[in-house]
C-alpha cells in the first residue's frame, strides 16, 4: 500500500494541513504530467503515469476527512479486508431499538415517528463525530502507546459510523415508501 503521507512528504495525520496537501497535489500534477514525458522511453512514461495516478489518489484520500480516516486506520493495519468487526453490545442494543422502530414504520408509515427516528440517528451520529474529532485532534500529541489506544478507539467509532450509514439508508428507503 502506498503511503500517501510519505509521497507528499507529510507526517501521518488525521488532520493534515489541507492547503499543503493541495499545494503538493498541484506541484506533483505539473511534475508528473504525462504530456511532459512524451519523448521519453516507454518505461519512463509508464513510471510517470503511475506517479500521476498515485498523486490523484493521494489527493482524493488526504483531502476527504472520511476517506482519510479509513486510510489512516488501514495504513496502521487496523482495518482488514473482510474483517468481521464486532460492535459493542451496548451500541447494538441501542441500534436494535432504532431498527425495531424502523421495521414498525415499514408496516405502519408515520411521518412524525420517522422524523423522530431521524433525529435519534442524527444525535447518535453527532456524538460519534464529536468523539472522533476529539480523538483525531489529540492523536499527534500523544506517545506511541497512547496513539495505539487512540487508534483502537477510532476504529470502533469508525465501525459504529459505518453501521449508522446503513441505518440512514434504511431510513431513507422508509421515507420513500
TrEMBL record:
Disulfide bond is among the record's keywords: no
Gene3D superfamilies: DnaJ domain, HscB, C-terminal domain
SUPFAM superfamilies found in the cross-reference section: Chaperone J-domain (SSF46565), HSC20 (HSCB), C-terminal oligomerisation domain (SSF47144)
Top-level taxon: Bacteria
Pfam families for the chain: DnaJ, HSCB_C
Keyword Chaperone: yes
Keyword set, alphabetical order: Chaperone
Chain ranges of the J domain: 3-75
Function, in words: Co-chaperone involved in the maturation of iron-sulfur cluster-containing proteins. Seems to help targeting proteins to be folded toward HscA.
Homology family: Belongs to the HscB family.
Protein name: Iron-sulfur cluster co-chaperone HscB C-terminal domain-containing protein
Amino acid at each position: 500500500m502506498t503511503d500517501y503521507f510519505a509521497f507528499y512528504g507529510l507526517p501521518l495525520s488525521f488532520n493534515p494541513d489541507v492547503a499543503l496537501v493541495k499545494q503538493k497535489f498541484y506541484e506533483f500534477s505539473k511534475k508528473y504530467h504525462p504530456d511532459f514525458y512524451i519523448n521519453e522511453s516507454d518505461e519512463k512514461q509508464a513510471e510517470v503515469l503511475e506517479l500521476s495516478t498515485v498523486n490523484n489518489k493521494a489527493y482524493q484520500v488526504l483531502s476527504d476527512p472520511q476517506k482519510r480516516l479509513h486510510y489512516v486506520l488501514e495504513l496502521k493495519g487496523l482495518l482488514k479486508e473482510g474483517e468481521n468487526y464486532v460492535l459493542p453490545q451496548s451500541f447494538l442494543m441501542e441500534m436494535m431499538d432504532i431498527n425495531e422502530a424502523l421495521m414498525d414504520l415499514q408496516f405502519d408509515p408515520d411521518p412524525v415517528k420517522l422524523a423522530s427516528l431521524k433525529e435519534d440517528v442524527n444525535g447518535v451520529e453527532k456524538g460519534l463525530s464529536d468523539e472522533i474529532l476529539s480523538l483525531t485532534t489529540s492523536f499527534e500529541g500523544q506517545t506511541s502507546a497512547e496513539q495505539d489506544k487512540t487508534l483502537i478507539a477510532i476504529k470502533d467509532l469508525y465501525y459504529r459510523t459505518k453501521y449508522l450509514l446503513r441505518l440512514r439508508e434504511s431510513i431513507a428507503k422508509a421515507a420513500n415508501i
